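USER:
Working in pairs, take the chain set out below, taking as long as you need, and write a paragraph about the fold.
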Amino acid sequence: MKIFLLGSGPAGTWARAFLGKVSDVSAAKPEIVIVDGLVPHDVLAALDVAPTDILILAQQAPFSNGDAPADVSTDTVRHEAQKAILAIELARRILQTLPLRPTEEAEWPRLIAELVGVNPSDVLPLAEPLPILAVAGDRSAAASASPAPSPSLLRTYLAPLLAAAEHPASIVVAWPRDCFLYGDAPGEGLPATVELAGRGRILAYGPYMPLPSGRWRATAYLGFSADIGSMPFILEADTDAGITRGFFEVKQGGIFTLELAFEVTNPFHPVEFRLVSQDSALEGLASLIEIRLEQPLPITA
């Protein structure tokens, strides 16, 4: 039996110590591999060589309860998303997954013992005191020089990824306008409306966030002013698998949706979308409201 432990913080430390004691009394002597700290690509490659029977998730995920400090950075969200995606990719490749949820903390020793096939009464006395889990992320770790994301990004992007590792199902996330950047002022946040007057160009780009591997469907919600006239645009999805483009022409003002199918082959590669105006214009306003992303079916090994 081979067990992968993906753990961090007090929960990961506790699980690592308890698994060692369970292994000592188990007749099967399971091999325990600690994943935390390894390069994600190397972790997934190792599974192709030697399959694993059990995955134990003991990640203490900051902000998973929706209570985030005001100064949490975009870099922190991206980092937490990468950890959540690693958990998703591992769960898709491993036969059995045990998430150690904070709400079930008192049951952790029994759940692990039963999963490994050890009589709980033989190991429960060996368990260290259960960790005290923080309700939110460490404020010092959350603060950085990068801009703070929209609070909705935590709810519409990070929270669904955290849930997907525990409950394999369709994944639906959304990237709101304020996590994108402004083409006319690189590095600055995207304003609510963008002036189209001038040459054709990149109007909006970003958000450089990762997604789990597989095929995705993006739905972009776009708004245009009444004086837009007839104007062609491109929506691009740039992933490690290449660039996928959707071409569309706007002939009147209003709110429109555009669907674009694309593929992610490297789940740790930052994904970029670009909204591009193809022709020059004398007037008109455009707005990238949101991009909703859906992976309809879970991917299995």
About this structure: The chain has two domains: 2-141, 169-295.
